[in-house]
Amino acid sequence: MLTDGVITLAVMTAGDAAALVAGEDDAIVRRLAGGPATPVSAERHIRERAEDWRGDWYRGGTKLAWGVRDVATGALAGTAEVQLVQPELPAGAANLSYSVFPPWRGRGFGSRAVALMCAFLAARTTATLAVLRIDADNAASLRVAERSGFRPAQELAGPRASMRWFAHDLRTRPAPGLQSRMFCPTCGLDMYWVVADDDPVGGWWQCDDAHRWRRAFGGFAPLDP
């Protein structure tokens, strides 16, 4: 589970199938799903993504997916997904995608999901570049890319690419949307990212009491014994 205190990214279970179907609108179907979800297809999707988490994350076609939940209510507010291997992307680049259901739009959930996915990639994978590919007419997601500190990266796309490409270097400071929303598990103070070029993931999270932490799948792991 990944959280910034406002949203949580957690692996979906069969109990989320109905909310997954209900949350889709025409925009999600057109841009991401390829066709309307049904209870059967939603359950299959959740089951397949759970198998991906248990398998080889770097196998072609593997999708590491979460449900985006509103912390205050526990409601499923969208989905998020990373792919560590895609034929269109260079080695070391991970593709990020997300959806936010209509009732939850306009609250910054997309930017928060992108920031949490970047933190996950930096701490738990060998990815060095996070990539967003966005339809040119998707103004909301274009704003998410900008707010999240992604740079235009059309040079990564093929000459016939119709989508706009953006990239964020995971070896540098994490996406800015994540900063100032992490709290020290020991003392509860705000944490900030400390850049360290000689560190395996480029740095660590630290509070003013000098507690140092690394992102882990279940939350944080102490950097110091």
From TrEMBL:
Signal peptide residue numbers: none
This protein is called GNAT family N-acetyltransferase
| InterPro entries xref list | Acyl_CoA_acyltransferase, GNAT_dom, N-acetyltransferase
Q: What UniProt keywords apply to this chain's record, in alphabetical order? A: Acyltransferase, Transferase
**A GO molecular-function annotation:** acyltransferase activity
Enzyme class at the top of the EC tree: transferase
N-acetyltransferase domain: from which residue to which, for each copy?
Answer: 7-171
Enzyme Commission code = 2.3.-.-
Q: Specify whether Calcium is a keyword of the entry.
A: no
Please, which domain of life does this record's source organism belong to? Answer: Bacteria
